[in-house]
Amino acid sequence: MKKLLLCLLFLLIPAVSEAAESLPPTLKPEAQHRDHAYTWETRHEAVKERHRNIKPEYVFIGDSITHHWAGEPADGFGQYGKDSWFRLFGPHAVTNMGFGFDYVDNAYYRIQQGELDGISPRVIILMIGTNNLGHRKDTPGACAANTRALISLIRRKCPSSKILLLGILPRKEKDLIDAIRETNRQLSRLADKRHVFFSNPGLVLQEGNSGTLRKACTMDGIHLSSTGYSILADELADLLHRMDPQYKGGKVPRPAKIDGMDPDQVHLVAIGDSITDNYRKDNLPCQDFLPIWKKYYAPYNAFNAGFNGNTTDDVLARIGGKGILDHVSPKVVQIMIGTNDTGRGNTEEETFNGICRVVNKVHSKLPHASILLVGILPSDIYNWHVAAAAYPDKKFKRDMAVNDRLARLYAKNPFVTFLDIRDVFLDGNGKVREELFCDPAVVVIKGKKAGPLHPNTEGQRLMAEAIQPTLARLMKKHSK
C-alpha cells in the first residue's frame, strides 16, 4: 500500500508543481477557432506527429506571422517567405509552430497539450502577442505576464533549450504604437541572457521611428511580405550565430560561379537597380552598355548585383533572402540605389533612411570592404507609370536633397565614400540633359514618350568615367 501511495505521489508532482505556479488571471489556456482558414486541431496534431518522428534543432512558436512564413508542417496556408526560411534554417531540422490568430493563451495550451513533449531543441524562438494587443485588446502588462507564464512552461518542458524571445512587430494601427512599445519594454525584462534572450527585430522593419511597418515589408500592415520575411531572416541569422555555435544556417548554398567567376575571385560588387543592371545590355545604338562594363568594371572582377525596379527594401530582401553577399569577400561594394524609392512616392526621409539601411547592412555583412555610395542620378520622369510622375520636379528636388544629406552624413566616414555625380547629367542651368538618357527614345507609355530616367550609351559611359577615379583609388587602397 505504501509503495502504491509513493508511486501516486510521484505521478502527481508535475501537475501539482504546474498548479502551484499560479497563472495570470488574463491567461486562458484553450484551443482557438477564430481563424477559419485552417483547422486548429489538425495542425496541433500535425506538430505533435512531427515531433514523434523528428527531433528538431529549432522550433518557432508564433501566430499567423510565423505560420505564413514557410516550413513544416506545411498545410497550404501561407508559405510567403520560402526563400528566406530556407536560407535561415536550410541545413537544420526545424518546426514551424505558428498558428494563425493565436493568442499567447492558445500557444500555452498547445504546449501544455504536448507539442514540445519528447524534444529538446537547441533554440526555441518565440514571437507571439500581437493578437492579444490588436484583437483582444490586452494591456501591455497582461500580455507580458501571459508571455512570462508561457516562457516558464517552455522552460519546464525543454529545460536545456535556449529561448529567443522576439518583440511584437509594429502594426498599422497607430493607436497600438505605444502599447506595442511598452509591451516590448516589459518583454525585454524577461531575458536573463543565460536561458532567455530578447531581441526586437521590429526596429529594422519599421519606417524610421514611426512604430508602423514599412510598406515594402508588409502585405496588409500586420503580416509580413516576402521582403519583410527576408529582412527578418537576416536579423535572426545574426542572433542564432551568436546564441548557438552549432548553427550553420543564414546562407544560401555556395554557387559554383557568380557572373562567371569563382565567388572568391569577386573583388567588386555593384549593387543597384536597373541603372546598374543595364550594364548587361548590348543593344545598339542607345543601350550599348556591356562594352562600358567590360572596360570600367570587369578588370576588377566585378559582380553586377543590380536588379531592375529595385528599391532600398528590395536590396535588403535580396541580401537577406537571396543571399547575394553570402559567399563573396569583395574589396569594394558600389551602391547606387534610391531612385525607385522616390519614384514610388517615398518621402525624402524614407528614402534617406532606406539608403542608410542598405549601407549599414552591407557594412555589417562585409566589414572589411570599402563602400562607394553613388548619389541618386537627376531625372525628369514625366509620363512614367509611377506615383512621382505626377510631380517630376518634386522627385528631382527630393533626390537631390537626399544626396545632400548623404554627403553630410558620410563626409568623414572611414568605411563609406559618397560620390555625387549629378553635374554630369545637368546643364549649366541645372536642368536634366535629356540627350544623355535613353527613355525618350525607347520608352512609350500610353502613347507618350517617357521622361529621362535611365542613361543612354553616352550617359552610361560618362557615369562610369565619373565613378572610375574614386573606384580605382578605393581598389588600390586594398592592394597595399
Automatic annotation (TrEMBL):
PANTHER family: SGNH HYDROLASE-TYPE ESTERASE DOMAIN-CONTAINING PROTEIN, THIOESTERASE 1/PROTEASE 1/LYSOPHOSPHOLIPASE L1. Transmembrane segments: none annotated. InterPro entries: Ester_Hydrolysis_Enzymes, SGNH_hydro, SGNH_hydro_sf. The lineage of its organism: Bacteria, Pseudomonadati, Verrucomicrobiota, Verrucomicrobiia, Verrucomicrobiales. Residues 1-19 form the signal peptide. Residues 60-230, 270-462 form the SGNH hydrolase-type esterase domain. GO terms for biological process: proteolysis. It holds the Pfam family Lipase_GDSL_2. This is Multifunctional acyl-CoA thioesterase I and protease I and lysophospholipase L1. It comes from the Bacteria. Keywords: Hydrolase, Protease, Signal. GO terms for molecular function: peptidase activity; phosphatidylcholine lysophospholipase activity.
